[in-house]
Amino acid sequence: MMRTKPIIAIDGPVGAGKSTVARGLARELGFSYLNTGAMYRGLAIAAREAGIDPAAPDLEARLAPILAAIRINFAGDRLLLGGVDVTERVADPEIGDLASRLSALATVRARMRDLQRAAGAEGGVVIEGRDIGTVIFPDAEFKFYLDAEVGVRARRRHAELVAKGVSISLGEVLEQLRERDARDAGRALAPLKRADDAIVVDSTALDIPAVINALKERILSRSGVSKGLKRN
Ligand code: DC
Fold first, then answer.
1. Residue 222 lies in a domain
2. How far is residue 195 CA from its own chain's centroid?
3. pLDDT per residue over 10-37, tens digit each?
């Protein structure tokens, strides 16, 4: 499909700053923003509500009707599942863990791929996830891979969770983060990895506005595709 505005893909591990950076960048460019991790989390909430055990041998068969019927929408910063606001449950570390487990399944990835491609097809969108530049939109006009040192990522994620009222220690967060990264990067299908043509941005020593600026500079400096971008 022809698009007149670019797709900006941002991939990376847990706590690299993807969500905050993607949201901020989208706002500055006047683009829309798609958080694909939240889509997997929405599915995890639906699976949990249906009482699905991720260890069940027939897990994919049990998930099939849920996948077929799932309706995930964003209303600003709110996540709607079948029209119901589930935002308060999205940050739950158990939901993140279940999302990561379910995201390794072929049927889950195929469904999410279709939903994500449909949502981003027209361009003018910043999309964040694990496989956006590699699998979902390998032809994205801009691809970034956001990373940071693991201790820094754990501290950021810990602060985020504490701010949301989740009671958890830094050590636990570090352990969960390592486990989730290993699973997301180690799976057979669409694993977390840097696309060969992605620009790596290490946010270890950068704050959010600095990262947003670094990405924005890259985007606005490339003439031709910067048509249709809003300059502030
Ligand atoms: O970005 P996040 O932490 O909200 O993502 C939750 C999980 O969803 C993550 O551990 C792996 C999965 N995920 C994925 O497999 N592919 C994506 N594009 C985004 C998330």
1. no
2. 15
3. 999 999 999 999 999 999 999 999 999 9
Residue 227 lies in a domain: no
Task: Measure 98 CA to ligand 1 centroid, in angstroms.
Answer: 10
**CA of 103, closest atom in ligand 1:** 15
**The ligand 1 atom nearest the CA atom of 129:** 18
Query: How many whole angstroms separate alpha carbon 98 and alpha carbon 53?
Result: 10
Domain that holds residue 13: 7-216
* Ligand 1 pocket residue status of 176, Cβ below 6 Å: no
Q: What is the pLDDT of residues 148-173, one digit of tens each?
A: 999 999 999 999 889 988 899 999 99
Q: Within 4-144, where are the H helices? A: 18-29, 36-49, 59-69, 87-90, 93-102, 106-120
